[in-house]
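Researcher: Final request for today, and then I'll write up notes for the group meeting. The sequence and the SMILES for 2-acetamido-2-deoxy-beta-D-glucopyranose follow.
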Amino acid sequence: MDVTSLLWLLFLMLLCCSTNQARLTVSPSRSQLFEEESVSLSCEEDDSSAGWTLRRNTTRGQMRRCGDGWGKPAGSSCSITYVITLDSGVYWCESREGSTSSIINITVSGGSVILQSPVLPVMEGHDVILHCQTKSPPSKLPADFYKDGSLIRTEPTGHMTIHHVTKSDEGLYKCNISSHGESPPSWISVTALVLPTSGAPTQTSPPSPLAFVPTECVFILVLHLVVFCVYFICLLLMVSSYRHRPTGTVFPTQPKPLNSDLINPVLTAFSSVYNI
Ligand SMILES: *[C@@H]1O[C@H](CO)[C@@H](O)[C@H](O)[C@H]1NC(C)=O
Ligand SMILES: *[C@@H]1O[C@H](CO)[C@@H](O)[C@H](O)[C@H]1NC(C)=O
Ligand SMILES: *[C@@H]1O[C@H](CO)[C@@H](O)[C@H](O)[C@H]1NC(C)=O
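Model: Predicted protein-2-acetamido-2-deoxy-beta-D-glucopyranose complex:
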């Protein structure tokens, strides 16, 4: 297939997958905050017309949108100037149609120690740095780190690095610093890099892009379905434009047949990709 067809296919794919996507970002990017800190959450969107808004579930209320008793909305962002322990909960972005982003946990500590851990899921194989921090002044004191209730490490400077995380590192972490206290617990989730193979030997060939994150497989499947629909619509347009083609003399008022220069490359691209 030629370059034009490929570009057309790419363009259509981008057009299709640019809807109903939003990524939730948090600043500062950590899962725990001290009381009176401020936080800003935003929905990074590809399609602003989808009307993404922040929602949260806390002990104070379920499914509350930003501005409804919490936070100050600004477009698809939301900020809280002084957080309190009751702001602890799960936060997510939701579009008008009800599609949702990933969900994050935010914990506000009323004490004087927090665990600085990643607020977003960590990709398998990456390093994770945990930092046990006191409220004031920020310290480099010795800290104990716990995972699922048991002590895993004591670090003299309060920093702990987990190298090349795997799914088994997923769990509930907390830390403590003597004379200051204990942090609340936070869940660290790890995103699998390769699809699990049932006991099969690991492949030596480089992993295909499809091998990353199971949820992306679902996404790609949906994408293919959407792309196939576009193909089908193009086909229908072609057929109808041929059927309306005059058989005898061309009348001046006859509408111009659909520009098949636009449709042909798309059809060619599909034929090559899907072996139709
Ligand atoms: C928020 O709370 C509602 C009602 O209890 C529940 O249906 C929903 O699943 C919760 N959402 C999240 C992300 O926890
Ligand atoms: C939030 O934390 C709870 C445990 O405290 C955990 O079960 C849940 O999976 C976490 N959710 C996310 C999205 O990290
Ligand atoms: C953490 O707390 C335990 C029990 O309260 C205490 O024995 C320990 O010394 C503390 N760890 C640090 C590093 O302060």
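Model: The CA atoms of residues 184 and 193 lie 29 Å apart. The first helix runs from residue 3 to 17.
Researcher: Thanks, that's everything.
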